[in-house]
Amino acid sequence: MKRLINRKAGGAGSLILGALPFVLLLVAYILASDARLDANPNDKLLPSFASIADAVDRLAFEPDKRKGIYILWADTAASLQRLGIGLAIATALGLVLGIAIGLLPLVRTGFAPFVAVLSMVPPLAVLPILFIVFGLGELAKVVLIVIGIAPFMVRDLSLHVAQLPSETLIKAQTLGASTWQIVTHVALPHAMPRLISSLRLSLGPAWLFLISSEAIAATDGLGYRIFLVRRYLAMDVILPYVIWITILAFVIDYLLKHLSRRAFKWQAEEGGL
Amino acid sequence: MSLISVRDVHKGYGDVRVLERVNLDIDKGEFCAVVGASGCGKSTFLRMLLSQEFPDRGEIYLDGEPLAGEPGADRGVVFQRYSVFPHLTVAENLIAAFEFQSSQFFGRLFGAARKRAFERVEEMLSGVGLARARDLYPKSLSGGVQQRLAIAQALLAEPKVLLLDEPFGALDPGTRADMHEIMLNLWKSREMTIFMVTHDLNEGFRLGTRLLVFDKPRWDPQAPDAYGATITYDLPLEDAADIDLSHFQTKPTEETTHAEP
Questions:
Q1: Which fold has domain A59-271?
Q2: ipTM of the assembly?
């Protein structure tokens, strides 16, 4: 018998092992839900799959009786728009400032302490300021996402660019490259894969800030809906919404991972992350 | 007039004197090999020739002009590592030299200029035996092939002097012998000036037309950092280069290999 640290799962084995936690969670939920519904058929805490399916059908496939919209899709569109704009702005800031701070000593001296302090400001603490300054509309929510993740991305990327081997920078100069050419031909390609992984790591916080701001002041959005129906203990709506948000986050992460692999073939392989 | 003139250069870091009173003249076409113990300042000296560091005292002239304050296309370099761009293929790495110099903003060549550059690149690719690797990324090349690429890339920029900082230090002995031959062939066919730092004395003898030894002429056991190193030996090796070249032919089947002393 091999030592435990040397035993690995094969193809089918790894599939079963990977599925096991999901199955266990599902089974535990079904058992608990059945037990509670047996005791009280009107229990709302752990709804049966039938009532969850009902709620999903009502929200996703039937137009709302008052507004005539499909609520799940309208919420999804509103949330993804906020998230997308926030992520795009934060990524652009991360790329531009990250390269400038990482590559140019003058900018580094000027900006690095500022960004270091800024990234310590708890974003949710400034949310009231954002609502006061930008109002309760879309802008405040987008700005919260940007403030929440841009400092991290700037710092991560500037540290990464600062790690460019001095040999590479010297070599580029001995081939006659100007500062701009070093930015576009050396620093940018060096930074891009890291930018994608930095963005992937920022997805979690970005969703956090999105749902927080929607919970506090919004008229649509995935976070808004969850906090709205919380008043009625509508677990049959909350649970599918949470699962739907998780699926969205997972798909975005998956797409970014594959974009990075496809677009930057020159990278050395780095594990299965 | 000599291509590189070094006049009374001193360099130290804090209380540590690294180099002192270094004087040197290198003529055009010389293959100058520099050896010395580790920490003797030979790499520091090379970094000063690159304008990566600057002397505390003294002057360095290239072609009669004081050295520019930053690295430039007049001095090519090959380091032990990180000398090629990992995100460019072999051919793209080579064409980068032309693109940087001729297109300041885009860093791209167009039309006839691009065609001419590609012809030069193809010539170089076959010259250093990289033709089959032209579309590969550096990560899939062996260390020796990467260094060949780095040398070819540096040469295409046509520097006045090629600086080599232990370029073959990380290679296995067989590959190193191949690289020596390629280096000597390139040096002879292009009439270049080369300044090579190495920790391998044999390599210095084999390649150089001139061997410089950096060492500390004064040594205080109580304060080992009080005095810096300077050039203690300066040996012309004109004839030795020929002997060594034939001696280190890499084909063991040839009769001549055994004839050498």
A1: MetI-like fold (1.10.3720)
A2: 0.83
